[in-house]
Amino acid sequence: MITDFLIVGSGIAGLSLALKLSEFGKVLIITKKQKAESNTNYAQGGIASVLGKDDNFELHIEDTLDCGAGLCDRDAVEKIVKEGPTRINELIEYGVRFSKDKDHLRLGREGGHSRNRIAHAKDLTGKEIERALLFDISRNKNIKILEYFFAIDLLTESNIRKDIAEKLPNGKKSSKKCYGIYALDAKKEKIIKIVSQKTILATGGLGQVYLHTTNPAIATGDGFAMAYRAGCELSNMEFVQFHPTSLYEKEVEDDTQVFLISEAVRGAGAVLKLKNGKEFMHKYDKRKSLAPRDIVARAIDNELKKSGEQFVYLDLSAIGAKRIKERFPNIYEQCKKRGLDITKEMIPVVPAAHYACGGVKTDLSGKTNLENLFACGEVTMTGVHGANRLASNSLLEAVVFSDAIYKYMKSNIGDIKKYEFLTRTELKSLAENIYEWDDSGTKNTEEWILISHNKKEIKEIMSDYVGIVRNTYRLQRALTRIKMIKKEIKEFYNRTKVSVELLELRNLVQIAHIIIKSALNRKESRGLHYMLDYPDRDDFNFKTDTILEKKNKLHD
After folding, report:
1. Which of 112, 339, 402, 428 fits as disulfide partner to 67, beta carbons 3.0 to 4.6 Å?
2. Which residues pair with 100 in a beta bridge?
């Protein structure tokens, strides 16, 4: 199978880019589940941009830099902020129906923002964006979506006949290149090669590496792992954001996606309280319940360790029953289904793994260090988020950098003789000389208990040792165990015919290993990476002896 542009993933980054690239040729989107299943689809809060009269670019830039704890790339931050209003208007042109007050967008506020600047569609913003983009794509003859196609590995020179690879006209001979992917057609249980002029990773997040996450089951870090194996540079992988307010439920299965209580709820006036009804965030930050996520998540974690309780409360009474139902209808209904009336009762909440601030390193055009391979969305490290992402900057980054890829393509596509693009004949010849997937010597196995057991063990290790608060001792213990599991999985993978479950397991253990190694390399506390060994002098104290540490002492 050949195509001009291959996009892996069907969230806001991939879909918005597909619509633009269709101007130049055939676009193929592959997605591991249904086309609407993505992290974007579950984004409640909205998309941040300077749209209010009392706001300006510099304020948004400074809020982002402050939240990123000194690790943001200012050029990348300025890029998303200054292009934000244009990209919002573009989404409106695509048919996205943002909430309005008469003829003006209704702008919400979230933690870390100094102004109201969150454009939203009530509390189902991501779902509304997906709806609009997918509708436009359904009418575009140059775009094709393949559902239930799992990207296994990127195609590079190692997958091409050596004599052919040496003659390819595109690129610097010293650099590594990408020519597409091997993909598993899950329904037909068949592996195919997809060869493309340009490949774009828009695969989303990695939250499923933890026991409890706001991410859907598909977020197994596939793009990160696949890029790493192909030789891509990854950066800032230690910075995994835990959303402070996921709904606490007593009985939750290990793989269950926990329900997110949007930060916009706090932006509308809700406050965090302890079981005794007292507020506590004033002890940790002057912004109280609207402090950035890293601070709020650590504060909750600290209070729970001191009290021994399993959750804190979110009190919505200041918002009012009428406004709750109008502004947050989805949260209201979802809580009601669980027997909780949030117009009368406080919501029990706990932090949960939410967003990867690190990822595949790209430049301001979305290019990776592999020629022909681009990336956009959560799978990337563009320099925007630094050590902690500012709320609702994720969707903004996705649309701005997908547009950057489009602009780069547009500037290079005019002259087909440039190394950037192959002729159709060359592309077809290339495809014929890429090796077919070889699974000789492998067999189907009934030992799927090994997969489920290893998956659970990885999640438990990451949650116990590589969570909100860390130390070197825990990280080293985690690394030792993950190395052993990784070796077991590699041996199992080499002798077994692939399946979605096995491929996800292979990716999860790879991502766990990278996160742990990255965390061990950063010998400081910064943003989302809080180390008990290196506490910030200006941060609050974490001397509480945790249950986990007590358990370790008993075992040792």
Report:
1. 112
2. 105
Least confident residue range of 118-132, 155-169, 212-226: 155-169
Confidence at 43, pLDDT banded by 50, 70, 90? low
Query: Hey, what amino acid is at 279?
Result: E
Alpha carbon 69 to chain centroid distance?
A: 19
Instruction: Give the pLDDT band of residue 253 (cuts 50, 70, 90).
Output: low
CA distances in angstroms from 45 to 123, 216, 355, listed in the order given: 6, 16, 14
Q: What are the backbone angles phi and psi of residue 328, rounded to the nearest 5°?
A: -125, 60
Q: Is 57:50 a contact under the CB 8 Å cutoff?
A: yes
pTM: 0.90
Closest CA to 77 of 55, 59, 53: 59
User: Of 526, 531, 508, which is closest to residue 208 (Cα–Cα)?
Assistant: 508
Pairing mode, if any, of strands 240-247 and 347-356? antiparallel
Q: Which candidate, 230, 160, 152, places its Cα nearest to that of 427? A: 160
Q: State the Cα–Cα distance between residues 317 and 276, nearest whole angstrom.
A: 16
% of the chain exceeding 90 in pLDDT: 72
CB 64 within 8 A of CB 390: yes
530-531 and 47-48: which strand pairing?
A: unpaired
- 449-555 carries CATH number 3.40.50.2000: no
Note the pLDDT of residue 33.
83
d(CA 36, CA 527): 32
Whether the Cβ atoms of residue 244 and residue 351 lie closer than 8 Å to each other: yes
Domain ranges of the chain: 2-239+357-432, 249-355, 449-555
Residue 381 carries which DSSP code?
E
Q: Which residue has the tokens 């596509």?
A: 413
What is the amino acid identity at position 233?
A: E
Positions annotated as catalytic residues are 293
Which class is domain 249-355?
A: alpha beta
Q: What's the distance, CA 235 to chain centroid?
A: 14
> Which pairs count as long-range contacts for 494-498, CB under 8 Å and 24+ apart, including other chains?
494/442, 495/441, 495/442, 495/443, 496/442, 496/443, 496/444, 496/445, 497/439, 497/442, 497/443, 497/444, 497/445, 498/152, 498/184, 498/191, 498/439
DSSP of 324-371: HHHH-HHHHHHHHHTT--TTTSPEEEEEEEEEES-EEE--TTSB-SSB
CATH topology of domain 2-239+357-432: FAD/NAD(P)-binding domain (3.50.50)
